[in-house]
Task: inverse folding
């Protein structure tokens, strides 16, 4: 059961088929989106940006072709931002490997994986579309095959009609 404290951490919470998405906002921007287990329950938005983000998350869950247009806080290093821009360019229904992204930005796959795991805006920056050369890869700094985060990654790829994962 969600405690009152857990609910206060987020400006809104959207329930999903895989659990929930927590939305944090401040200063007119989305500061973070967080994948949450099903113990978190829907929370109405506390401000206009959170309401906009919750609406757009719901639209994506209804239609994987929906494109996000949210005001995002400026976060991350220059390198992370370069990786996130490459990830944001991956079309729905397609995946690239960590190595593909690394070659495109002249970096190393492990560094790309670390930047993927540090993504503050999953769904908007679709890091679930980045996989290992030999399979699913990790997700949100987790590689537990039966864990929550890889379950979310599988759900998102299936939602976007990506085969094989």
Result:
């Amino acid at each position: 059961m969600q405690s009152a404290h857990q609910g206060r951490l987020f400006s809104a919470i959207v329930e999903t088929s895989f659990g929930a998405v927590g939305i944090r906002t401040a200063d007119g921007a989305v500061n973070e989106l967080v994948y949450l287990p099903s113990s978190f329950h829907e929370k109405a938005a506390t401000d206009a940006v959170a309401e906009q983000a919750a609406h757009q998350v719901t639209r994506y869950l209804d239609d994987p072709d929906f494109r996000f247009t949210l005001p995002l806080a400026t976060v991350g290093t220059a390198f992370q931002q370069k990786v996130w821009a490459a990830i944001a360019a991956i079309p729905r229904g397609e995946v690239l490997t960590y190595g593909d992204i690394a070659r495109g930005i002249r970096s190393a796959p492990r560094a790309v994986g670390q930047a993927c795991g540090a993504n503050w805006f999953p769904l908007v920056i679709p890091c679930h579309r980045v996989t290992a050369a030999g399979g699913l890869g990790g997700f949100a700094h987790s590689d537990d095959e039966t864990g929550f985060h890889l379950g979310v990654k599988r759900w998102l790829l299936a939602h976007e009609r990506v085969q094989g994962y």
User: Anything to note?
Assistant: The chain is about 35% helix and 15% strand. Helices lie at 4-8, 48-62, 78-88, 98-105, 109-117, 148-159.
